[in-house]
Records
---
Amino acid sequence: MEKLVQVLTADGLRKTFDDLVAVDGVTFYIEEGETFGLLGPNGAGKTTSISMIAGLLEPDAGAVSVLGTTISTSSTKGKGDIGLVPQDLAIYPDLTASENLKFFGRLYGMPADTLSVRIDEVLEVVGLTDRRDDLIKEYSGGMKRRLNIGIGLLHKPQLLILDEPTVGVDPQSRNSILESVEQLSAEGMAVLYTTHYMEEAERLCDRVAIIDEGSIKAEGTRRELVSLVGEHDRISVSAGGPLNVAAEAARGLEGVLKVSPSDHQLEILASDASSLLPELLSTITASGASIVGVEVVEPNLEAVFLHLTGKALRD
């Protein structure tokens, strides 16, 4: 199996402002084609962390490298590989979408012919092709957010940093943004995604770091993080027939932790419902029961955050 390229390495980042420790020992990495999430409430240290990663803020301690190049505020080296989409909009309202992209493309030093083609591609990715010649001040909030992402993508960065990109947008634009991020990751781009929306992290991120009060409390895949809580997947199977026989058969499957039969239903506790489900349903059916419906409830990152920090994600 081919080893993936490690695009970003953040090692021991620390930043203080007077007596406030904003970031304390933040360490993680991101590989190509991976979406890595920083999940935490407002004020947790997400924006300070990415400001250091993007080379906008010098860390008091620690280091950042992108594709092996050290990133710092005093040098432009490596920054061409980074696309930063800040939480605050960085676009000109009195220009059109095309004019904004052309302006930023020239700042990147992109040749005119390359830039022209790339503007078309970016507008397609963010779904603004039909509004390319409209002034930005006529755009909705969601459309402005999508253009903001387009600017970060313009020079084809190896690492795209998105800081709370869906804050304050309508549901349609939010879904469009999430679909764009999924597409970019599938195409091989490394993505650093900060959010305080648990459902976004669960949908987009291959790995998630839970950050609170400036430090990372835990990091891993959703399944790895959920295992920290000690909770398990719950499968409810509505069925008819000999459910006691079906329950006994289900108990013999690897990954089944507990089976509780009742009238017309089996309540099953499992370690990994998604991998177990096909064999489980086949076993229940083979035992003579007829399945009417199935519901799977998996523990989420909200429960993990509460377990690690003692507070709800949006506190």
---
Amino acid sequence: MTYKALRKEVCDANHELQNINLTFLGRGEVSGLDRERGVMVVKPASISHERLIPEDMLVLDFSGTRLEGTLAPSPDAITHLYLAQAFMEVGFIVSSFGPHTAMFAQALRPIPCLGSLHAAHFKGEIPITRMLRKPELDRSYEKSLAAVIIERFGRMVHLETPAVLVASHGAVAWGQTSEEAVLKARAVEELARIALGALQLAPTIQPIPAMLVERTFADYRK
């Protein structure tokens, strides 16, 4: 049993993530799932994006056991594995570290929905997780990151708001296809950049009304 097609798709998506400047000094990655076969393809920690080839990609089962590949997965890949088990409709998961995304994450601020450009992609603000507590850090950093993301969503629909800022970290986005997941990660960065400028021009600006968010989000999906 091989996973050649998925390894290539995930490798190509990681190259695209670097091409659109959503990686930072080797951090940032895309992982992809084959739910029927119970596996996730992830980027190894020790290989840079520019040198990455499909044969380098790791294949893990849902318990984290390596089925193909000899290198260690990155910490973000382990977080993706736990998220995949909670967000069942998701096919691909992205950790991104665009500069404006990181600004909001480090400021511990969600990205407010200030206009229709935002509402076309996300049904409201892009939320932010709480900080990890010491016991969570002591247990498992990677698993705890996934846990606070899942906790933050609560009753939210994760396909209506397919991204989250991780406090003092970066962003995690997802989609049913690799193109959709990378697009949502790119949208987070662009919307963070636009929101930062809008808040500088008008510090008291408020989010757009919920009815406009609903209408724009629905129209974008027709």
---
Amino acid sequence: MKLEIGGKLCQSCGKLLIGRSDKLFCDVYCKSSYHYRRSLTEAPRFYNQVDNQLKLNRRILKSYNKAGKATIRASILKEQGFNPKFFTHYWKNQKGSVYLFVYEYGFLKKKEQDIEKYVLIQWQNYMN
């Protein structure tokens, strides 16, 4: 946006810009504000969606696994927003069971009396 006198306006607040000819914003606050408002109109990036789901999964597993090992119905975790498709790594025990981990909190899907459950564990040094 150019003025008749040859000046440019801040893309965020519309104030007259003073300084370099390629300047777009009057200060860092306006620059940050402009990019934040613009990010709200864009679709969330895939990376952010995955990262948010991993953080949610970790928070849920941590809340139900206070003692280091627990068993809980899968429906309870899923109601909280847990998605077992999002995990960071896995560990296979000596029996061949594969635990999926979200950072330091692991889970193993199992069925007991036709009820889907998860065994929750916490990462231990011997698992390295």
